[in-house]
Amino acid sequence: MTGFLSVIRRDLRLAFAGGGDVLTLLLFFIIVGAIVPFAVGPDQELLSRIAPGVVWIAAFLSMLLGLDRLFRPDLEDGTLALYRLADLPLSAVIAAKVIVQWLTSALPLIVASPFLAVILTMDLDTFWRTVLSLLLGTPALAAFGAFGAAVTVAIRRGGLLAPILIAPLCVPILIFGIGVIAPLGGPGQGTAAMLFLAALSLMALALTPFAAALAIAWGRSRAPP
Amino acid sequence: MGRGETILARGLALDVAGGSGLLLRGPNGSGKSTLLLTLAGLLAPVEGTVTIEGHDPDDGPALHYCGHRNAVRARITVRQTLDFWAALNGHTGLGADAALERVGLGKTAKLDAGYLSAGQQRRLVLARLLVSRRPLWFLDEPSAALDADGRVLLAELLSAHLAEGGLAVIATHDDIAVSALTTLQLGAAP
Q: Residue ranges of the ABC transporter domain (chain B) (predicted)?
């Protein structure tokens, strides 16, 4: 357990001591949301109708962009070899990294989402639903992302490969995430979408660390270091 | 043994007993590092097996591997780096302060590890071997970048480790002043 916590502490320290990474993703999130009104024109009604989707796509893209820093720096400085020989199982290390990934790349976006809500003229009810769906859905995005990063870490310059690989897997998260905000169909659909989204996140958090650990151990033991 | 499609050595059989060390020597590119990685289980052997006898797998990994890269990251202090390694591998050896003192980094404990010179980083890696006790040490050019004092320190640490019944496999070009070392000479790459 101390090993698990120390991985979290170290990665949080690295993420915030540098400062740059977290802020860059946050600005990217805001910029993606902010250019939409310029692209679709100043139609307020249209903007507030598509606002939840815009917020989700902005969050989706900025979370995928941050994937490369998950394992690559550790691979390059030799820490990944250390993790593979640690007392702490590799899957636990990855679970810790997923938690840090969520804290540094999803939580800041959720905190900043009021900015986008104002820019996109969201009403208050929709805004709260958006925050709720982001809270429920982003853990799954972080977990799937860690899996993608683990699969592609063996590939040199595989930086943008993980997002491409992972994007199709994340479509259900997007569908149910939007379903929570703008329920289609009859009453109760919003709740159902919410439950599905929560289930997706729990499943992804529970299973992807093992899959990612397998991908790293297998990939690294066959590739030149 | 090899990497990817390249086979570096065939028909290699070696046996190292506790309390003794093995020096791997050979020209650049002859496969010293690859052999170390294979022995450490970080690289799958093309054919054959590596067996560690007399170790209960439930006790966790039996070995320390120190590669070319030091796993030292800037923006974390020296002491925090060592604490992190100790937490990861278990506090089974010296305390962090004592280990830093032993490798001559006692005064730099609060310094950002990114400011350490290459030799000091190497000393920090040696401290990692001390904070978590493991019977097998696999060291890849441990004396690279170390000064004369550092080499003496390395030899002392290795002698103490072997005297306790530990085992070491070291890939190096330098002379390491430790008795109970045998040498395996690897030929040039085919």
A: 1-189
Can you give the residue range of the structural domain that contains B149? Answer: 1-52+135-190
Count of structural domains within chain B: 2
For residue A134, the model assigns a pLDDT of: 95
Interface contact flag, B63 A85, Cβ < 8 Å = yes
| Per-residue pLDDT reduced to its tens digit, A175-205 | 999 989 877 666 778 889 999 999 999 999 9
Subunit contact B4:A220, Cβ cutoff 8 A: no
Between chain A and chain B, the number of residue pairs with CB atoms below 8 A apart is 82
The CATH number of whichever domain residue B156 belongs to comes to 3.40.50.300
Alpha helix locations (H) across A120-188?
A: 124-152, 161-166, 171-181
Shortest Cα–Cα distance, A2 to chain B (Å): 6
Residue A221: HSE in the Cβ half-sphere, 13 Å Cα cutoff = 17
d(CA B132, CA B130): 6
Mutate to test the interface with A, among B47, B66, B70, B73 (most CBs of A within 10 A): B73
Q: Which range, A25-34, A65-74, B46-55, B92-101, has the best average confidence (pLDDT)?
A: A25-34
State how far the Cα of B36 lies from the Cα of B170, in Å rounded to an integer: 8
Interface of A with B in 184-223 (CB under 8 A): 220-223
Contact A85 B64 (CB under 8 A): yes
Helix or strand run (H / E) with residue A203: helix A189-220
